[in-house]
# Entry
Amino acid sequence: MKRTIRGLAPVLATAATGAALLAGAPAAQAASAHTAAAVTVKSATWGQLHKGDCEQDNGTIVLRSDGTGDWSATTLTFQTHSGDVWHADFDFKTTAGTRLFHEGTFDSPRMDDGNPPPRYFWTAHFTYDPALFGAVDIFKTTQTYNC
# Structure
């Protein structure tokens, strides 16, 4: 025979809150320990860029609301045996164009030419103040680059 005890859930919740307080943890923290915060992502991609005898393809910048970001690109060089390096840095701006913060300089691996030239895929990870995430207009981000 099964019994249902009415009102037991509120009593158990109150007991759990009391146990959390006795343990030194805030009740809200104890109650939300099983809930993971969703991370929002903003990203932008540049098509093909050229500087000197170097090329960057599909450079992508990603910002996450948790204050982390990643840069990735594929680069190549058409005429060098000395090891060209693609340098990229970024200014993140508001919709009005106000600069919020700067990241970089990120450097590609040393590149050599060939026929066809080898393609170098590379990434860079960075952190920033997550309080700025909401103000960033990712499509106003400017990349300054050199090779």
